[in-house]
Amino acid sequence: MPKSKRDKKISLTKTNRKGLVLKQRIMEDVKKCVEEYNRIFLISIQNTRNTKLLELRTEWKDSKLFFGKLRIIALGLGKSRETEVAEGIHKLANALKNHSMKGQCGLLFTNRPKAQVIEWAKDYEEMEFARSGFVTPETVELPEGPLPQFQHSMEPQLRQLGMPTSLQKGVITLIKPFKVCQKGDVLKPEQAQILKLLDKPLAVFKLLLLGVYTKKHGFKKLTIPDVAKENDEEEMDVENNDNT
Q1: Which site in 32, 41, 106, 224 is 20 to 30 Å from 207, CA atoms measured?
Q2: Which domain of life is it from (predicted)?
Q3: Secondary structure of residue 237 in the 3-state scheme
C-alpha cells in the first residue's frame, strides 16, 4: 500500500516550543481539511473586519475558513510536488503565498457546490467604515451650519479632529464649510474618525474568489469569465463525481 502524502513530516525551524505546537496544529488541521472537503477556494478579502470574519464562520459552519498564518497553511498543503499532501495542491499553496504578499487572503474548504459558492461570493458585500490608508471613492463635504446629530459635549472632540466648530446656543455648529475628504484622498486617522462619527461608511467588505482546487481537476484560477460561466461542462462533471 503506497504511503499517504499526508504522513510526510515538515521541519519548522527558528521557533519556540509553544509556537511550534501551534504551527504543527495548524498544519495538521489543514491536512485533515484537504481529506474531508471536496473543494478549496482561494479567497481575497477587501476591507476585512474581524466581526465580519466571525459572521462568515457562522454562516459557513459546515465548511472551514482559514485566515492568517498563511505561510504555515501553505506549508501544510505542501509547496512542491515532493511535499504536497494531495495531487497538484502545491499550485494552490504557491498561489496562496503569492497573493498573501498583495493583501488579505485565505482559504475556504467546503463541500458546497462550486456554483453556489461563486454565486454567494458574487452577491456578498457590505458597507463598512473606512480606516486610515483607505483611498476614498468620493468627496464628502459639510455645509456651514448646525450639526444637531452630535451632543454638545462632543464639540471639543470634533474641533480636535480638525473641524471648525463652535457651540451656539448649545448646538454644535460649523462656522464655515468643511471638506472631510476629497475623492482619491488617502485617509488620515482624523478623517476616518470623522466619517465614522458622521455614520458615513465608504468602504465595501467584499470577497473575491481567486481560484479553486479539486482533487480531480487540480488548481484552477478563477477570473470574471469563469464566474459568469459557473454552470459550464466542467462544473457539471465535478458535481456529478463529487456527489456520488
Answers
A1: 32
A2: Eukaryota
A3: helix
Give start-end residues of each CATH 3.90.105.20 domain in the chain. 134-198
Question: Which part of the chain has CATH 3.30.70.1730?
Answer: 22-129+203-221
| In contact, 39 and 111? CB cutoff 8 Å | yes
- 43 three-state secondary structure: strand
Q: Is the pLDDT of residue 59 over 60?
A: yes
With bands split at pLDDT 50, 70 and 90, how would you rate the model's confidence at 178? very high
How many whole angstroms separate alpha carbon 147 and alpha carbon 165? 9
Tell me whether strands 105-110 and 64-67 are parallel, antiparallel or unpaired: antiparallel
134-198 carries CATH number 3.90.105.20: yes
| Length of the chain, in residues | 244
Buried b (16+ CB within 10 A) or exposed e, 37-55: bbbbbbbbbebbeeebbee
Rounded to whole angstroms, how far apart are CA atoms 121 and 187?
27
Fold of 22-129+203-221: Alpha-Beta Plaits (3.30.70)
φ and ψ at residue 148, rounded to 5 degrees:
-65, -15
The amino acid sitting at 80 is S
Residues 67-123 pLDDT 10s? 878 889 999 999 999 999 999 999 999 998 887 655 678 999 999 999 999 999 888
Name residues whose C-beta falls within 8 Å of residue 137's C-beta, 6 or more positions apart in sequence.
183, 202
Do 227 and 124 form a contact (C-beta atoms < 8 A)?
Answer: no
